[in-house]
Specification:
single chain; alpha+beta; two-stranded antiparallel ribbon; 9 strands; elongated
Length: 428
Amino acid sequence: MNEAFLHYLWRFQKFTHRNFKTPGGESIEILFPGYWNHGSGPDFKEAKLYIAGIQWSGSVELHLKSSDWYRHHHHKDAQYDNVILHVVWEHDITVCYPNGKPIPVLQIHSYVNPEVEKKYQTSFGLQPKFIPCEQHIKEFSKGRWIPFLERLFIERLEAQVAQIQQLLKKHKNDWEAVFFEKLSKGFGLNVNGEAFLTMAQHLSIQNILKRKHELFQIEALFFGQLGLLHPPFSDFYHEKLTQQYQYLKQLHKLPTPSSPAVQFSRLRPANFPTVRIAQLSSIYAKHGTLFQSLINAKSFSESMAIFSVEPSEYWKTHYNFGIEGKPKTKKISRSFFDLIAINTILPIRFAYSRYVGVSSQDSILEWITKIPLERNRIISAFRDFDLPLPHAGTSQAVLHLYKNYCLKRLCLNCQVGSFLIKTPKYKN
């Protein structure tokens, strides 16, 4: 038994009968159970009830035991002073308002069909190998999965919008600056993302935009603030780039690089931080106002073309300073662009459309279908359940589902879990 099950019972009023009474014998009639509260405070708000013939409006709080009220310190939180009903599985102690008057309580275990609880325990109470509903997930049809995965993908984007809004506040609504930070972190991948982000935070996007077509200067700023330009010098190019950086550092009063040390270990040469910074430099040298270019892009292929650049001549024969190899074009690969599109471009376009009040959901959903399904352990496990996963939008959706619902065992907040618990065999 857990509170998630209680939430389900109350939210959907899954009771065998409704002759509710408090332990003291007062009648309870539920007119409206309230709106589920996802934030702080009581579990349900704006509920409407009759208690002993008197109509009440306010909040409802749910617990396994009445004593959990004190264990969770609700008696010290003014948000709970307007609770009109305390719904519990087991009533073990009287709970009072600050004035000493008892809070009405409803002990609900005698009103619940045992088959509903049995179904819940069978579906979600056992220790799973992967996800709680793995024994029954195939009962959720493919026709139900398609709209649910679409909603999960949009939900994932909406979570990223909240992060972008915080950056907008920091940068006083400068979208170019926000995109520069997000893109830089993306180019650093998981291994060097924080180092690349710190680099971007120490540079003014305006100083970058002023140097459009000045690739060498942009490289100097990026490599320098990443902490890669210092003696001993590996070759002449490394030394000249450092001299350029020292001049720009003094000109713009840049802070001494404090980025976390970049890592080369466990990375393929194509993902070396030196190669990724060289590519990022070339993009900004060619396009300047990169955010605006991507917002104006009318198609996925047009946005991909913006990233079709080559690093400077030096990097055709190098993966790191001073180590020369066979000449090789180091254009941004399609797989790397797809990663940037998923984690940076699409969230930014989605957030910007919300900002200007224009719907972009259809175009976002169309663009994400152009990106192949991602591959990892979690997605492979979901594919074993025969889910319809044709493209990256669906893989992003199941990753969001796994992280935000399955791992947290929020089964009854999930459409799959809610469907399984309400199958006809177990309806009251």
